[in-house]
Amino acid sequence: MISAAATTNVFEATPTFAPRPGITHVVFDFDGTLSWLRHGWPEIMLEIFLPLLPRRADDTEPALRESLLADIYALNGKLTIHQMSRFAERVRERGGTSPDPETLRQEFQATLDRNIAERSAQLREGKQRPDDFVVHGGGVLLEKIAARDLKLFILSGTLEDRVRVESELVGVARFFGARVIGSRLDEAFSKLLHLEQILREERIPAANLLAIGDGAVEIEATKTLGGLAIGVASDETHNGSGVMEPHKRRALIVAGADAIIPDYREPDALLARLLGA
């Protein structure tokens, strides 16, 4: 069984990890991997879910939270509706009347959007620095990756126009240029298909691909293709704490991550370990 305990390991290698000197392309997820604008989103989901979950005689609140968080993080990286649908299944399993997943999604999105708007306003008004909303060390790591002439992409399940605006707000857009891929209202979204497209259009083998993300979906997709997958178990409460979020860490390991990190606090050492040079 994988422990859900918090850990302060700077680099937790799994048995599949090996450096890849041939890496030429680096794909980042956005929310929770680079941007911290949406931090705290799992707690928003819990606040919506917990009052609606039918209780059993042997339930405890800590156990319910753990169970729901496991579901939430296992689906991290997919469109939000998947987490809402899984919760609706949980309610049905307990004999309750299933809530409408789309109604849940809208409630969640409205609360999250208010938080994002407040944080964005703080950035625009100069009350916060862009680095305050970048996962710790992320800006420095991007500088060092760019200095090695590796090609950088963002691949996110968040709506593409929002990713572009928010990447400008937090000061990382310049590293990616037009290489920002997000979801769109008019099409189904698949990280696996988009990664395949990147490999095809860039004419590189999967062995040259490094993907970094805080969600199980991008990790699974990268491993399916044969790339190097690094999980970021970033802290949703205290940016730069160095503590891995335990539920996120567990989901990333289950997804097959080659290594787990809490953030990017030692960028030179991290790149040396990943690239073997």
Give a written overview of the molecule.
This protein is an alpha/beta fold. The protein has 2 domains: 12-37 and 131-275, HAD superfamily/HAD-like (Rossmann fold), CATH 3.40.50; 41-124, no CATH class. 44% of the residues lie in helices and 12% in strands. The protein contains 10 helices and 7 strands. It has helices spanning 41-49, 61-74, 80-93, 101-124, 138-147, 160-169, 191-202, 216-225, 246-255, 267-275; strands spanning 12-13, 25-28, 151-159, 180-183, 209-213, 228-232, 259-261. Strands 1-7-6-5-2-3-4 form a 7-stranded mixed beta sheet, with helices on both faces. Helix 1 (41-49) runs antiparallel to helix 4 and helix 8 packs parallel to helix 9. The two termini are 34 Å apart. The model has no long low-confidence stretch (mean pLDDT 95).
Element-level helix/strand string: EEHHHHHEHEHEHEHEH
Shape call: globular
Distance between the termini: 34 Å
Radius of gyration: 18 Å
Low-pLDDT ranges: none
Helix vs. strand class? alpha/beta
How many domain modules?
2
Annotated CATH architecture of the largest domain? 3-Layer(aba) Sandwich
CATH class of the largest domain equals: Alpha Beta
